[in-house]
């Protein structure tokens, strides 16, 4: 197995995000890999913003919901030792934006959490499924422990 040079952690800040982040951190340490983080905003309204718009982390938008998401990403990045230039906050479709950023960064592994959806949600597809089938690199879906 080739060593991973660049790992992309895709986070959604769900309850078990820390578990997935620890897995990515451990892999980055093991392989001495560069680590990047992406968080895709798809659950808050973004006025006058098109899908695919990268949100600047150091600019104050004046939009409270957006500032909360920025703070979460910066805090996680700080904990993981990921520089701000390797953190991406973007408004869009997670399955699409994760793949775009992975390609731009030439990541050779994407790590994201698997929510273990069942029923209708599974039939309609999930972010993990879409990334798995369309990424140009390896994908690690971390099974999230139940609470």
Account of the 3D structure:
- The chain is α/β, with parallel strands linked by helices and 147 residues long.
- Helix content is 39%, strand content 23%.
- It has a six-stranded mixed sheet, with helices on both faces.
- α1 links the parallel β1 and β2.
- The longest helix is centred in the middle third of the chain and has 17 residues.
Number of strands: 6
Uncertain segments are: 120-124
Shape: globular
- Which structural class best describes the helix and strand composition? alpha/beta
| Gyration radius, in Å | 15 Å
Instruction: List the total number of helices.
Output: 5
Mean pLDDT: 87
CATH superfamily: HUPs
Q: Secondary-structure element order, as H and E?
A: EHEEHEHEHHE
Largest sheet: 6 strands, mixed
CATH architecture: 3-Layer(aba) Sandwich
Total domain units:
1
Class, according to the CATH hierarchy?
Alpha Beta
CATH topology: Rossmann fold
Distance between the termini: 33 Å
> Helical content, roughly?
25-40%
> What oligomeric state do the depicted chains represent?
single chain
Assess the beta-strand content as a share of residues: 15-25%
Strand numbers in spatial order across the main sheet: 3-4-2-1-5-6
């Amino acid at each position: 197995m080739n060593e991973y040079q660049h790992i992309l952690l895709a986070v959604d800040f769900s309850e078990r995000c820390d578990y997935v982040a620890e897995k990515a951190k451990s892999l980055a340490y093991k392989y001495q890999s560069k680590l990047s983080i992406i968080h895709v905003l798809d659950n808050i309204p973004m006025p006058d913003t098109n899908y695919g718009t990268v949100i600047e982390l150091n600019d104050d938008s004046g939009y409270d919901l957006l500032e909360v998401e920025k703070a979460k990403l910066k805090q996680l990045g700080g904990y993981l030792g990921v520089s701000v230039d390797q953190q991406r906050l973007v408004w869009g479709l997670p399955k699409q934006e994760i793949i775009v950023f992975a390609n731009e960064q030439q990541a050779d592994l994407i790590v994201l959490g698997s929510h273990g959806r069942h029923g209708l949600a599974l039939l309609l597809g999930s972010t993990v499924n879409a990334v798995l089938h369309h990424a140009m690199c390896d994908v690690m879906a971390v099974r999230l422990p139940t609470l």
